[in-house]
Each structure stands twice: as structure tokens, then as C-alpha cells.
Amino acid sequence: MQRRQKLIELKTAGEIEVMREAGRVVAAVHAQVRSHATAGVSLRELDELARQIMHEAGAGSSFLGYHPSFGAMPYPGVICTSVNEVMLHGLPTGYRLRDGDLLSIDCGAHIDGWHADAAVSFCVGQARPGDGDLIATAERMLAAGIKEAVPGGRLGDIGQAMSRIGRMAGYGIQNDFAGHGIGRAMHEGPFVPNEGRPGHGMRLRPGLVIAIEPSLMAGGGDDYAMAEDGWSLCSGDGSRTVHVEHSVAVTDDGPLVLTLP
To answer: Residues 6 or more apart from 239 whose CB is under 8 A from it?
Structure first.
């Protein structure tokens, strides 16, 4: 989930540690939701589980009530549940999962006013042909982008490292809803594109925290469309999609992923 903003704030070590606590909550949500995401379970039930985990951890939801200019209404859930051709921002409705569904879960949580945000994609039950490769490619893109999140690097280095992998695999990449800064707000500057030119863009400095989040469309096209619900972004050709994400701090010791267990 993303909105571009101009504010760019470098975080202290203490602030990054609080974001790491929020990131652990996000990781716990992903682990539990994934284990419960079986055929017959509704997306709303997964959202209710995520709410319970956040409440027990003393964390708030970054998503609930969020209302950017493109959203038809304030977001009604604490996780985004995007199924098959839905790439981003899928609403947690009463839809019940089916064997073979391709599911992306995006989650944001905050503790003491500091946010963390991450997304995972996985298959429900038996994977359909091609889904495993699609997920693996997105995960390689994310790993490549994280590797470039070092002092002295450029935002374009991150985008180029990711897009090279996705384009070589023949998948479509949209670049309107991509990565972003994160900290006191869920969405801060800078915008972190899924494609870029090496050596171009803002220079990375220690204390910068960004969410890196590539998304892919299996059909190979870059077009996408807004669904009738006013939130869900779908592949333009109806092909299956994936979305993965981590919140990452740029440090003198290298990239620090904040949304791991």
C-alpha cells in the first residue's frame, strides 16, 4: 500500500529499533496468516486473525482507516488480501480461498508511532503451473533490491537491480505503486521505484528507512486496472500477480531488514 510524500527523515538507531519491534509484529502476522490460509477460509477471517495478533502484541494497524486520494473509502482492514489477478490492495472480503489460489498478504503495524510494512505471496494448496516461478522471481527481485540499499548507493541502483530480474523472466512490472520511505508515517519520501537507472536518483544515507516492494504480472504487460471496489489493483490482462516487500534500514553495516521474525 503506497502513497508518495515529500518528507525524508533519517532515523536514529533507537528509532530504527522501535521500527524493528513493529517489524516483528508484521512478521508474526504473516506467519500466522500463512498457516491459516487454507481452502475454505475467508479473507475476512484472515483479517480478524491479524487484528488479534496485533492487539495481543500491543501494536496498531498502519492500514485500518487509511484513505489516500485513490481509495474509494477508508481502508476497512488491517491486511491487504490480494488473490490471483489482484496485484495490490485487495480487500478482506467474505471470499473463501480455493485450492490453487495465489494469495498476497500485505501488512503494516506501528508501535509507539513508528511503522513497519511487508508483504508476502504464496500458493494456497496445490500451486498452479508457473506460480512457483512467479513468486521466486519476485523474491529474487526483492533480495537484489535490498542488497543495493547501502550508503552511497542510489535509488536507481535498487530499481535497476530488481527490474533486470523481472524483465529477463518476461514478467510485467508496474511502477506507479512501488516502494516508499517509512517511519513516523506509513508512507514517507522518497518514492522507491521498481525500475531505475544505476547511478541515478537520490543518494542513500545511513538512517534512511525504505519499504522495497516489487510486484509482477505473469502476462508480461505493464498495464493494470482498478477494480469496482475502488481499492483493488488488478493486472490489465487478467493474468496472475505477486507482491513481496520488506522494510529496510540503510546502515553503515549494510542493509538491515526490519520485517523479519
So the answer is: 85, 172, 217, 218, 219, 220, 221
What are the residues whose beta carbons fall under 8 Å from the beta carbon of 28, sequence distance 6 or more?
Answer: 53, 57, 261
- Using a pLDDT cut of 90, give the percent of the chain over it: 97
pTM (global) more than 0.90: yes
Q: What type of residue sits at position 174?
A: Q
pLDDT tens-place string over residues 167-187: 999 999 999 999 999 999 999
Coil, helix or strand at residue 88: strand
Nearest CA to 177 among 113, 122, 104, 111? 104
CA distance 158 to 96: 36
Q: Provide φ and ψ at 67, rounded to 5°.
A: -140, 80
Q: Sheet containing 86-88: give its strands across.
A: 86-88, 233-235, 224-226
N residues, the chain: 261
Spell out the alpha helix ranges (H) of the chain.
13-36, 43-57, 131-147, 155-168
End-to-end CA distance of the chain: 21
Contact 104, 82 (CB under 8 A): yes
